[in-house]
Amino acid sequence: MMIYLDHAATTRLDQEAFEAMKPFLLDEFGNASQLYTFSRTPKKALKKARETIASCIGADPAEIFFTSGGTESDNWALKGVAFADYKHRATITSAFEHHAVLNAAETLEQLDHPVAYIWPDKTGNVNPESLAAIITNETLLVSVMLANNEIGSVQPISELCSVAHMHGALFHTDAVQAVGHIPIDVNELGIDLLSASAHKFNGPKGIGFLYIRNGTKIRPYSDGGAQEKGMRAGTENIASIVGMAVALKKNCDVMAERSEHIKKLEELLIQRLREYKLDFIRNGSENHIPGNISLSFKSADGEALLHRLDFMGIYVSTGSACNSKSTELSHVLKAVKVPEEYALGTIRISLGYENTIGEIETVAKALHTIMNP
Ligand code: PLP
Question: What's the rounded Cα separation, in Å, for the pair 73 and 210?
Answer without folding.
Answer: 5
